[in-house]
Design brief:
Blueprint: H1 49-75, H2 80-95, E1 99-108, E2 114-123, E3 131-137, H3 143-159, E4 165-171, H4 180-196, E5 205-209, H5 215-226, H6 256-269, H7 272-278, E6 288-292, H8 296-307, E7 311-316, E8 321-323, H9 330-340, E9 350-352, E10 365-368, E11 387-389, H10 398-406, E12 410-412, H11 414-417, H12 420-434, H13 443-463, H14 474-482, H15 485-510, H16 517-536
């Protein structure tokens, strides 16, 4: 059977590294049947993350097969053979990794010793340009992982209607074992190697922060690009997102993924039909939740959920889990973690030496925002939550997903649930290529319009004999005075996530998927990618 994500090409003279794609097969196997090498994934206890991604993609394609053919009929392809060939060609393009690059370079450590560093960057589906995806620093980084994550990014961007293809990159290091100067050397050299090969740029590939990286590394990357290939490119600041604010970043980016997780939960909680199936009321009052992972995503998710009256009763980290049925404050826990570098010892909480056990406690909503495959076939039946929101990539295996669906547990998939980050990264990129922050040209004009509108109402009342002055309410006045880029970004993010929630739910109804929102989200994404390739054509 064909491999969904096998690279179509490589960069330079070195072929793409094999391993991620163990099944090299011909196009004749592009059918609605599952490839043989994916047959055991729905029952596997610990499947490869790469195979999980492939399985989810192929599952959606299998369901969409008849819709693909119907679309090609509308396109004017008259014979069955023409339609089948076109469909197979598009499926191969939309599912296989377009290119992957592996680079090695030496750095001089602070001790004077030299070390060879290995980095990767993968471009998946290039149906939309530029491609987009994070850069992670981890000892787990390899060619297989970045290609799988690049595929995930293609479908994530498509799901939330962000016009990017998918990409991913990383450097195989433990950043905690390197000094700041060494990390800067590594980052700049990695950037330079990609720049030399014309593999990144505002219209080619726009990276972002990921595991082990932050705005600091993005600033170094951008600075390297501007001082080399980008020195004549007026849009060079848009070569990367997640930058510090004073270097072209955008307000609201840091909290974007966490806010997105909240929006996702909020949008589905308001769906009365789904809440009737899972057994919850469509209001936040008295809702309890547990978060696995108290990093950037976990903290901001907790903060926003806290504001609407939901109660956090548990937080799990890599070293300990804490539980308090009376609730855990986001800011108090963050202060404790900043002071002690751990959540261990948080006042008033019960500790779980094995933090994994905490996710099995009774709660309404579970947010796994840390590890891949934390919910598996062997423990899925222990999950008591009615809703699982995937703040991390791939925290629920396909086998576990089946078990949770049978329990009428609503799993909101990663390609939608944690897409808040890439959505706001898109806004940052737009800001950079427009060379103006959102609202800079319109805030004053909008305020004058509102004042004129209120004056017009007052004049109309005066003509009826009622001399009443119409003033702005304090809330409206404060919003106009304090209006900034962050308000626009957050409103746009909220709208984007709400719109996508409606589209995913509509897709689930169209395909009679019940609570299987993962397949619905992948169907939504896959159909959009297919239509893009269909309209654009496949050949020069």
């Amino acid at each position: 059977m064909f491999s969904l994500l096998r690279p179509l090409q490589s960069i330079g003279n070195k072929p793409a590294k094999k391993g991620f794609f163990k099944s090299q097969v011909s196009a004749k196997y592009v059918t609605s049947e599952f490839p043989q090498y994916l047959k055991d994934i729905p029952e596997a206890e610990n499947p490869l993350f790469t195979k999980m991604v492939e399985y989810n993609i192929f599952n959606a394609i299998r369901i969409l097969d008849s819709r693909f053919l119907a679309s090609l009929v509308e396109r004017g392809l008259k014979t069955e053979q023409e339609r089948e060939h076109k469909k197979q060609g598009i499926i191969k393009l939309m599912t296989e990794c377009n290119s992957v690059i592996e680079i090695k370079f030496p750095i001089k450590r602070d001790t004077g010793a030299y070390e060879l560093i290995t980095g990767y960057r993968a471009h998946h589906s290039m149906h939309r340009m530029p491609v987009k995806g994070g850069i992670r620093y981890s000892t787990e980084v390899d060619s297989d992982e970045v290609q799988a994550l690049a595929a995930l990014m293609s479908f994530k961007c498509s799901c939330v209607s962000v016009p990017f293809g998918g990409a991913k990159g990383g450097i195989k290091i433990d950043p905690k074992k390197y000094s700041s100067d060494e990390i800067e050397k590594i980052t700049r050299r990695y950037a330079l190697e990609l720049i030399k090969k014309n593999y990144v740029g505002p219209g080619i590939d726009v990276p972002a922060p990921d595991v082990g990286t932050s705005g600091r590394e993005m600033a170094w990357f951008m600075d390297t690009y501007i001082k080399t290939l980008g020195h004549t490119n007026i849009n060079s600041v848009g070569c990367i997102t997640g930058k510090p604010l004073f270097l072209g970043g955008i307000r609201g980016r840091v909290s974007a993924t966490g806010r997105g997780v909240f929006n996702v939960a909020n949008n589905f909680l308001k769906n009365e039909e789904l809440m009737g199936i899972v057994g919850l009321t469509p209001v936040w009052k008295d809702k309890t939740y547990i978060i696995q992972g108290f990093g950037n995503v976990g903290f901001h998710s907790l903060r926003y959920l806290e504001r609407v009256g939901a109660k956090c009763i548990g937080v799990a980290e890599h070293d300990v889990g804490i539980y308090n049925k009376d609730g855990i404050s986001a800011h108090e826990l963050q202060s404790h973690k900043m002071k002690n570098n751990t959540i261990k010892g948080f006042p008033g909480s019960k500790e779980y030496p094995n933090p994994q056990d905490l996710i099995f406690e009774a709660c309404d909503i579970l947010i796994p925002a840390a590890l891949e495959k934390s919910i598996r076939k062997s423990n899925a039946d222990k999950i008591q939550a009615k809703i699982v929101v995937e703040g991390a990539n791939g925290p629920v295996t396909p086998a576990a997903d089946k078990i949770l669906q049978k329990k009428k547990c609503l799993v909101i998939p990663d390609i939608y649930a944690n897409a808040g980050g890439v959505t706001v990264s898109y806004f940052e990129w737009l800001k950079n290529i427009n060379h103006a922050s959102f609202g800079r040209l319109s805030f004053g004009y909008e305020q004058e319009n509102i004042e004129l509108l209120l004056g017009s109402v007052a004049e109309s009342l005066k003509k009826t004999g009622k001399d009443i002055q119409i003033d702005m309410s304090k809330a409206l006045s404060d919003r106009m005075i304090q209006a900034n880029e962050k308000n626009i970004v957050q409103s746009a993010l909220d709208y984007s996530m709400a719109k996508t929630a409606h589209e995913i739910y509509r897709e689930s109804k169209l395909n009679n998927l019940g609570v299987d929102m993962r397949t619905a989200a992948y169907c939504l994404s896959a159909y959009r990618i297919f239509k893009t390739y269909e309209e654009a054509g496949l050949c020069l």
